[in-house]
Amino acid sequence: MPYGDALSARIREIAPGGVDLILDFAGGDALREVAELATEPRRIISAADPATATEMGGSALNRTAEALKKITEVIKYGLVDPHVSARYPLERAGEAIASVESGRATGKVIVEMVSA
């Protein structure tokens, strides 16, 4: 799903000095377009496209307990809004996937697994 025209320019309007961190979940052209906004290339981290992140001077997302704790704290203190647009029970996972694939999802889509 495209992020719109002139994504880099729109970000630059609100962050003229660049950004401290790029946490990428899209990869490819979207990551290439915004990579130049990172004040430190090593602060480009990608969950979707580690090869491009590395090419741009960054790295792959490191999934460790410590990293998860840091991300949780950032969300907890309101520094980032992970905007959840929909929740589906596990038995409706197909609908959740279709929502994401169609481009209708405006935020994160969660599939909830409830254990008995």
Termini gap: 37 Å
Oligomerization = single chain
Major sheet: arrangement of strands: 1-2-3
What percentage of amino acids are in beta strands? Answer: 15-25%
Helical/strand content category: alpha/beta
What global shape is seen? globular
Alpha plus pi helix count? 5
Instruction: Name the helix and strand elements from N-terminus to C-terminus, one letter apiece.
Output: HEHEHEHEHE
Overall average residue pLDDT? 86
**Uncertain spans:** none
Describe the sheet with the most strands.
3 strands, parallel
State Rg.
16 Å
What does this structure look like?
It is a single chain. This protein is of the alpha/beta class. It is built from 5 helices and 5 strands, in the order αβαβαβαβαβ. Strands 1-2-3 form a 3-stranded parallel beta sheet. Strands 4-5 form a two-stranded parallel ribbon. Helix 2 links the parallel strand 1 and strand 2. The longest helix is centred in the middle third of the chain and has 12 residues, at 65-76. It is globular and about 45 Å long. The protein starts with 6 loop residues before the first helix and ends with a strand. The mean pLDDT is 86.
In short:
The chain has 116 residues and is of the alpha/beta class.
Essential attributes:
single chain, 116 residues, alpha/beta, three-stranded parallel beta sheet, two-stranded parallel sheet, 16% strand
Topology, pairings included?
Layout: H1 7-14, E1 22-24, H2 28-35, E2 44-46, H3 50-55, E3 59-60, H4 65-76, E4 84-89, H5 93-102, E5 108-112
Parallel strand pairs: 1-2, 2-3, 4-5
